[in-house]
Model the fold of this input.
Amino acid sequence: MSIDNNSGYDAKSIQVLEGLEAVRKRPGMYIGSISSKGLHHCAWEIIDNAIDEAGAGFCTHIKVTLNEDGSLTVEDNGRGIPVDLHPEKQIPAVRLAFEQLHAGGKFDGQVYKTSGGLHGVGASVVNALSEFLNVEISRDGKLYRLEYEKGGKLKKDLHVTKKKIKGSGTRITFKPDPLIFKETTSFKYETLRNRLMELAFLNNGLTIDLIDNRLSNKNQEPKKETYQAKKGVVGFVEFLNEEGEYNPVHKKPIYFKGEKEGVILECAIQYNDGEDEQLRSYVNNISTDEGGTHESGFRTALTKVFNLYGKKNNIFKKNENLIGDDLKDGLTCVLSVKVRDPQFEGQTKTKLSNTEVDGLVQSITNEGLSNFFEKHPSVAKDVINRVLTTCLERLAARRAKELRRKARNAEAKALSGKLAKCSEKDKSRNELFLVEGDSAGGSAKTGRDRRFQAILPLRGKVINTYRAKVEKVLENEEIRSIITAIGAGVGKEFDVEKSNYARVCIMTDADIDGAHIRCLLLTFFYRYMRPLIYSGRVYIAQAPLYKIERERGKIVRYAYNDEELQEALKELGRNARIQRYKGLGEMNPDQLWETTLNPANRRMIQVTIDDALEAERKLKILMSDKVDPRREFLMENIVFTEDDM
Ligand code: TTJ
Done:
């Protein structure tokens, strides 16, 4: 046989084989991959054809059988693939379907309004990738057969068998070629099951059988399941909600369908009390995981109709306005759209891009949903109230966020007038001094090393954290200044790593008020910033009690307690001048630097957890309503000076 043989038939056959050979050379180009996914793609390709016949209204039953030899049989009770000769090519139509890439009567979009478009590479591709493929067609009381082998080579041309049959239908059996599918040639029952269940839901009235005759386990009975979804997409959303963990908020699902300019739409919605959204959208029975123009049109219309209904029927509290996101919580929805010439884009080619579909879907949904709501006002009410809940939550969250922002701003503003920040940003070196009183605060601000020492003057008594409730503590202005200055949060959220300072130094007067404020601060740190103490970041600054000088200040000593005072007097003689500091405020900036701030001279006590606990205990007694133990404690523990009396 030669190519320029007069018989056009042979020449055509060779062309055909060249086409199928290309598929075998680059299978990935046609079915995505040669993995398990590509293998199943072949099954979908064949099954989709039977589904199309069902979608056209000529087939009510599809049977999918996993055979013992690893082949797959798909049969339907449709009209049967046409067997008549193509007028020009003089080849039976069924052969064109299995031999020509992108060929065959139905594949050019003439016979079916909407055919499975995403994969849509056709039966010939499956034939090319099969070890064998057999076709049986029942038509006009006859059974036709056609057989291929080794990647689409004609084994037995179309012929009529002796068998007389009733009814009509198509049966295809094919075995994926292990030379192509090197990873696996074994179909997964679960994978087929999931897709066939989905197809049954999407094609109301269709019955699908799945039978597994592979006796991989010799004792095992052949498995058979039947999927028949009498309630279509309504049954689908009910099924999805039953599978999930949340309860529907209305018993009857929303349902509507419609058609406009060739776009056919069917939709079911049932809200539940959960927060997840489950929107399954399909175009021509193909799952559109990445959404697209049908989904966007649908969401637009849904939001619009919900808003209109809620306002008209006074379901909204004020004049709320639902946004798209408000409709998502608890939404379980199946949206099935049929489109004549679907175009897909996106990462996985599962996003519909036909621009005209957006508006058409909007208009069908608008009308269908409005009608449904008019007919079922109680469902409408439940649904609108469900989405209103989400909307109100969103508005409340927004208000709370706004309030927090305002509070933060006000705080930062209030603090900026008080806190004298240090100029460098080194968190591992910077120090914060909490200084009692404005006048001492002023001296400290002047006397400090402003590169790494920050000063926060504290006015009034810091709130008593021992007795105050959390909210009260956090309302206190002084406490808030401290929290903001340290910048590491408070309570459970406190994160010591975020602290702006390596040291937080409490600097109070050496009198009873000072002791009290120190107690309060330590108790606050113990209760609300404990890791600050554990990590050794809390200190008590020690200011001297006396200044001893001679010769008009040429010789100066400072004493931090009475013992040191005696020592200084011994050294400088009995006629040295003694100044007793009544408070930090009496020290000028230089003196404060010299004695209390300068790291070279100062004495600071690192606070331990035991100190803090002790402070808390003292505070408990000091603040007690019972007067007696308080008095007792004061008498025993506090050394009163003349000034305190
Ligand atoms: C085509 O238009 C005239 C009437 O028959 C139409 C048709 O192709 N029907 C049809 C095809 N029914 N079933 C199929 C079919 C089924 C399987 C399982 C596989 C394939 C490739 C086609």
